[in-house]
């Protein structure tokens, strides 16, 4: 049995490797996963939530470049390297976009940036603010590859940091749906009778409620926030897993090897976990990939409605909500860039789901 199982796994792996779009989607998902985990390492703005606002340079086009003056606050922040890499840098310094500057009588005289051909305010600051009077070390040219949003934040950094929410909500939601769905489906399919009828009634009632409406109700009950959305999405996706597992177990429990396991005196828990579930996980894996994509879309919809991830957290759905008006104002990229990110990640999971379905169908 183990040799046969091993050969089937090898056959499925070979079939998956031959699927170009499946392999491409896998590597794309791995890339997005790495970016989401190490977002603050790759982001030009590595402050927490990439939330450095510069209203004077709001809604600038991709490739916009400006001189940025950094005025040190003198405050020391207690932050270790782990916290800085995974949760962003606590930045107490003040960043000011400027047009030009000069040093005169131990003072820095600079002109603030102003758009539309206007002249910005001229201000002065004592050089003692800068360590060793090295003012040149605190003035750098900053390029915004994706431009800036309506608050003057770096759009590329917001997109990179926003990938974390969309990617991790899929993992958490699928994890929750698998735990609940596999348990409920296993109990219903294996024992049948009244237990099956009660669980199927719960599944049908949950299934009849529109997913987005149910998520909104759970979110309002748990409160707005990061983890509340994760839990709410996961609690609405278990019914599909439960139905699939129930159907598979009803078919599998009549097989001869299950009858033999029962004859040997194995308890119900061992029969389900050791003998049935390992042989029916193929369709569960496929539906989990589809649920991953669905979770990303649901979270984006919730953020667009304003009940998902709350400001200042970066979320692709919230970015579309903030900038969808700009589609008719000549700057559609502010909404299209996060929209394309959502579309590409969802498509990758759908393609890998199709590839897994074909690969795990060893009879085909």
From TrEMBL:
<protein>
    <submittedName>
        <fullName>Peptide transporter</fullName>
    </submittedName>
</protein>
<keyword id="KW-0813">Transport</keyword>
<feature type="transmembrane region" description="Helical">
    <location>
        <begin position="198"/>
        <end position="220"/>
    </location>
</feature>
<keyword id="KW-0812">Transmembrane</keyword>
<dbReference type="InterPro" id="IPR035906">
    <property type="entry name" value="MetI-like_sf"/>
</dbReference>
<dbReference type="Pfam" id="PF12911">
    <property type="entry name" value="OppC_N"/>
</dbReference>
<keyword id="KW-1003">Cell membrane</keyword>
<feature type="transmembrane region" description="Helical">
    <location>
        <begin position="20"/>
        <end position="43"/>
    </location>
</feature>
<dbReference type="InterPro" id="IPR050366">
    <property type="entry name" value="BP-dependent_transpt_permease"/>
</dbReference>
<feature type="transmembrane region" description="Helical">
    <location>
        <begin position="333"/>
        <end position="356"/>
    </location>
</feature>
<dbReference type="InterPro" id="IPR025966">
    <property type="entry name" value="OppC_N"/>
</dbReference>
<dbReference type="GO" id="GO:0055085">
    <property type="term" value="P:transmembrane transport"/>
</dbReference>
<keyword id="KW-1133">Transmembrane helix</keyword>
<feature type="transmembrane region" description="Helical">
    <location>
        <begin position="165"/>
        <end position="191"/>
    </location>
</feature>
<dbReference type="InterPro" id="IPR000515">
    <property type="entry name" value="MetI-like"/>
</dbReference>
<dbReference type="GO" id="GO:0005886">
    <property type="term" value="C:plasma membrane"/>
</dbReference>
<feature type="domain" description="ABC transmembrane type-1">
    <location>
        <begin position="163"/>
        <end position="353"/>
    </location>
</feature>
<feature type="transmembrane region" description="Helical">
    <location>
        <begin position="226"/>
        <end position="245"/>
    </location>
</feature>
<comment type="similarity">
    <text>Belongs to the binding-protein-dependent transport system permease family.</text>
</comment>
<feature type="transmembrane region" description="Helical">
    <location>
        <begin position="276"/>
        <end position="298"/>
    </location>
</feature>
<keyword id="KW-0472">Membrane</keyword>
<dbReference type="Pfam" id="PF00528">
    <property type="entry name" value="BPD_transp_1"/>
</dbReference>
